[in-house]
């Protein structure tokens, strides 16, 4: 029997990709086709399974918007072909999302469907601005209202007289162009003009902007600020709580989009740290990991493992690739019984400990020069030392160890290749000022970044972007390419890099507020 199609109408949440529900994400990742629009958010799509068919049905400047019945038809058609379809809609699918109409169309066509509710912007955008939509001291009622309808229309379907004084918190969606008449109608119908009001634009996203005022003046303020959609309008006493409860906009990296240039496999720790601090990580892998062109040197070293006194790992990739190969040669960690193990830093140590190994030495500073200093007296003349590393690793370490009288075997455990990031997209974002900081975690990330971007005037392109480097060697490489370096970590780890960036932005903020 052929596979039966199904459509999941999924609330994608208000913009922060992590505000999709666990069920929504699961359905999305099990789908063959994803049908989405503007508010569902591009970042969420990076969590889709590779190879998933992505269909954009939102507005775009170069194409006319797909009409609702065309979207309905598309969903029916895809599901009829036996596909599992995720229909991603901003916020909640049934809150002004026309999800009801899509479900009706599916029902009429006999297509199986499920609704996965989502976090609506009507509640989440105020929440991210520090405004609880209900509060025991202020109100126990709220209404979500469309602002789409011209309130001055004679046969308005909204009972303004009841709404104006009958409900505590009023949240309008799609109301920016009607804001002057919405506020006017509410005041005419008895809501005091001094009632607190707020606008939250692009809520839960780095672009979030909040404007506060009163029912009487918010519309004029919005006009001055050039405030536009997508925004929610909040009217009610609860708005006053923002002064105490604003939290998202206070985060140190709030509003900053930070480029992460590490390999896809390694990016997550940095991305998560950026997110925790309120920033938006944008991953652009400049490095990929591939098998070495020739396994012979590594294989030979693996066959002679018993002879080594030390094995020094200088990256997490090195650890993973070494042990993969060991396994492929039908061997395991017992081969290392006679060797002591050194890791260049805490992450590499963690990776080794996951294999059940005890690490004998981690230098205080995570550089080749520091390892050598620390191994003085631990490595004796004539000791065999193995360095399973990247094909392009710096030679300093091997040379210094040889200088100490060690017999060094320096082999490639993996090869670094150019990453698969979308450079056209990144160039566009840089030109538009949509990227605020770029992080480099090794010299190769800098060099590959420059190669991949292949832009005639990189220096200028990055002039207003904060360049943050994990250490002095990386920073030097960046400077050699003509870049100005704003942040160099004092501790050459991801934590160190994040800390240094944090300090930088704190200073910048202080400066900003002071002057
Ligand atoms: N189903 C959606 C609403 C769709 S109507 C939901 O539940 O959120 C589109 C309107 O939603 C926009 O005009 C705007 O008023 C609001 N909206 C959606 N995302 C928003 C966001 N991140 N910040 C502020 N308003 C948003």
UniProtKB/TrEMBL annotation:
Protein name as annotated: uroporphyrinogen-III C-methyltransferase
GO molecular function, one term: uroporphyrin-III C-methyltransferase activity
Organism: Pelotomaculum propionicicum
Short name of any one Pfam family annotated for the protein: HEM4
Domain Tetrapyrrole biosynthesis uroporphyrinogen III synthase: residue ranges: 269-498
Alphabetical list of PANTHER family matching this protein: S-ADENOSYL-L-METHIONINE-DEPENDENT UROPORPHYRINOGEN III METHYLTRANSFERASE, CHLOROPLASTIC, SIROHEME SYNTHASE-RELATED
Domain of life: Bacteria
EC number: 2.1.1.107
Tetrapyrrole methylase domain residues: 7-218
Kinase found in the keyword field: no
Keywords: Methyltransferase, Porphyrin biosynthesis, S-adenosyl-L-methionine, Transferase
InterPro entries assigned: 4pyrrol_Mease, 4pyrrol_Methylase_sf, 4pyrrol_syn_uPrphyn_synt_sf, 4pyrrol_synth_uPrphyn_synth, 4pyrrole_Mease_sub1, 4pyrrole_Mease_sub2, CobA/CysG_C, Siro_Cobalamin_biosynth
Entry similarity comment: Belongs to the precorrin methyltransferase family.
Top EC category: transferase
Biological processes annotated in GO: methylation; siroheme biosynthetic process
């Amino acid at each position: 029997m052929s596979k039966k199609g199904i459509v999941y109408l999924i609330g994608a949440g208000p913009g922060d990709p992590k505000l999709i529900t666990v069920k929504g994400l699961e359905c999305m990742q099990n789908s063959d086709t994803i049908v989405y629009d503007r508010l569902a958010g591009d970042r969420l799509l990076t969590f889709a399974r590779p190879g998933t068919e992505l269909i954009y049905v939102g507005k775009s400047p170069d194409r006319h918007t797909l009409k609702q019945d065309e979207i309905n038809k598309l969903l029916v058609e895809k599901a009829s072909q036996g596909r599992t379809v995720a229909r991603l809609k901003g916020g909640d699918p049934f809150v002004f999302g026309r999800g009801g109409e899509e479900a009706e169309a599916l029902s009429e066509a006999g297509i199986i469907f499920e609704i996965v509710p989502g976090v609506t912007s009507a509640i989440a955008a105020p929440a991210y601005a520090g405004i609880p939509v209900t509060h025991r001291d202020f109100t126990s009622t709220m209404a979500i209202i469309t602002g789409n309808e011209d309130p001055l229309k004679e046969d308005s379907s909204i009972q303004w007289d009841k709404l104006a004084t009958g409900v505590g918190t009023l949240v309008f969606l799609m109301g920016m162009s009607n804001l002057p008449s919405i506020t006017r109608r509410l005041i005419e119908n008895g809501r005091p003009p001094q009632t607190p009001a707020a606008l939250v634009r692009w809520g839960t996203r780095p672009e979030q902007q909040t404007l506060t005022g009163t029912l009487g003046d918010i519309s004029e303020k919005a006009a001055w600020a050039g405030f536009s959609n997508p925004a929610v309008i909040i009217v009610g006493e609860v708005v006053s709580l923002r002064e105490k409860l604003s939290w998202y906009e206070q985060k140190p990296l709030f509003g900053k989009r930070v480029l992460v240039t590490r390999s896809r496999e390694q990016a997550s720790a940095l991305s998560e740290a950026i997110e925790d601090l309120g920033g938006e990580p944008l991953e652009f892998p400049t490095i990929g990991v591939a098998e070495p062109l020739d396994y012979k040197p590594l294989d030979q070293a693996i066959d002679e493992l018993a002879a080594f006194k030390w094995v020094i790992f200088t990256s997490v990739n090195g650890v993973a690739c070494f042990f993969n190969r060991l396994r492929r040669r039908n061997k395991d960690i017992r081969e290392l019984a006679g060797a002591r193990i050194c890791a260049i830093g805490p992450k590499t140590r963690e990776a080794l400990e996951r294999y059940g190994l005890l690490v004998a030495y981690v230098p205080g500073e995570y550089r080749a020069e520091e390892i050598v200093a620390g191994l003085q007296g631990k490595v004796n003349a004539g000791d065999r030392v193995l360095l399973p590393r990247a094909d392009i690793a710096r030679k300093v370490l091997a040379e210094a160890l040889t200088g100490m009288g060690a017999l060094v075997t320096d082999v490639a455990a993996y090869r670094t290749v150019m990453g698969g990031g979308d450079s056209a997209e990144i160039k566009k974002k840089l030109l538009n000022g949509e990227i605020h900081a770029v992080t480099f975690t090794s010299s190769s990330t800098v060099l590959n970044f420059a190669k991949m971007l292949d832009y005639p005037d990189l220096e200028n392109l990055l002039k207003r972007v904060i360049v943050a480097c994990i250490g002095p060697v990386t920073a030097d490489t960046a400077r050699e390419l003509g870049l100005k370096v704003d942040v160099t970590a004092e501790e050459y780890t991801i934590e160190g890099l994040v800390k240094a960036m944090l300090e930088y932005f704190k200073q910048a903020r202080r400066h900003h507020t002071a002057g």
